[in-house]
Amino acid sequence: MKSLAPESLLVSAGRPESPGQPLNRPMSPASNYLLGAGKVYAREHGAESWTALEEVVGGLEGGTAVSFASGMAAVAAVFDQVPSGGEVVLPADCYQGVASLAAEGEKKGRWSVSRLPTDHTDAWIAALETADLAWVETPSNPQLILADLAALAAAPRKPGAVLAVDNTFATPLNQRPLALGADFSVHSATKYLGGHSDLLCGLVVSVDPARHEALVRSRTLQGTVPGTLESFLAARGVRTLAVRMERAQANALHLARFLEGHPAVAVVRYPGLESHPQHALAKAQFPAFGAIIAIEVNGGAAAAEVACRATHLVRHATSLGSVESSWERRAVYGGQEHVPPGLVRLSVGIEAVADLQADLDQALRSAVAPD
Ligand SMILES: Cc1ncc(COP(=O)(O)O)c(C=O)c1O
Fold first, then answer.
1. Of 66, 175, 185, 305, which is the most exposed, with the fewest CB atoms less than 10 Å away?
2. What's the CA-to-centroid distance between 187 and ligand 1, angstroms?
C-alpha cells in the first residue's frame, strides 16, 4: 500500500494485525510476565498500550518513539544524554520546566547553559558548532516565537551533538523535525496528543538506533515509564488529533483576528496573523498555525487576572492542547522574568467559535470596564 497520509496513519497505526485479535491494543495492567518468552518485567519490557502509542507517534514523526511518564520525563531523558561538563543551549523563551531542569543541572555542575533568542538564527548556527545539546522549542511557550528550524537542522554541528526539538505546540501534523535533520522530536503528550486533559505522558522520537537505545535505557533505569492507563488514553486521544487540530486551529485564527480588533486588548501574538513578526516564516514552515494565542490586555497584570477569572466556557486553568479552551496569566509562575506580567496564554479548543468569542468578549470588557 502506498504510504498513508498523516490523518490515516493516526487512525490505523499501532493496531494488532492478526485475525481474532482485538482492534485496539489492550490495556493489560501487569508489572511482570510469566517467564520463558522474552518479556520479564514491565518497567523494561513495557505494556501493549505503550506500543500502540509509540507506533502511532513514531510513524507520524518518521522515527522510533519512546514513551515516558510525562513530558518532563521525556525532556529529562534527552538531557540525560548530555556528556558530563557538556554545553547546553536553550531558547530565551521556552517552557519554564525545561529551563528549571537545565538550571538545576548547571547548579550541580552537570553541564553549562547558555540561552539564545529563538529567532536569532545566526547565533544558533554559531552555537551549534560547540553545543552538546541544542534544545529548540518552536513555536515557543508562551511567546510564540519561531525558530528557522530548517536552517538550524541543516547547519553543521559538533560530532555527537544533539539537536532536540520540543514539538509539543506544533504537533507532528504541522512540523516534522526529524525529516528536517533534527536528532530528537520531543512531546508533552499531556497536551495535543492526549488532547483531553486527563493524563500525563511524554514521548521522544529519534531515527538513530543508538540514540533510541540510550533513551530506552534511561527510561528503564530511572523508571520514568508511562502508566498503562495513561498510554492507552494517549493512544486513543491521538486517533482524533487531525480533526481536533483542524477545528482548534480554525477557531484560533478566527479568535486571534477578533482579539486583534478588541478595544480591551493591547497585543495579540499568533503566528497566523499578518502582524506576527515571523508570519512569513510561519507560512513557509507550517501548513496551519497552531491553536495557542498569547495576548496582553489593556490594564496589565491586574486586568488580565480579572479577565481570566471572568470566563465561563474558557476555563481558567493551566496547561493547553485539550478539547476545552483554557487561559491563564503566565507570569504567575516564578522564574520567567522575560514574560510580560500581563501576558495571557489562551489554548483554543474545539467548542463553537461564536460561543468562545462571546465568552472572551464579555470577560475582556468586564476587566477593562470603568468602575
Ligand atoms: C512546550 C512544553 N514542553 C514540555 C512540557 C512538559 O510536559 P508535562 O507537563 O507533560 O511534563 C510542557 C508542559 O506544559 C510544555 O508546555
1. 305
2. 8
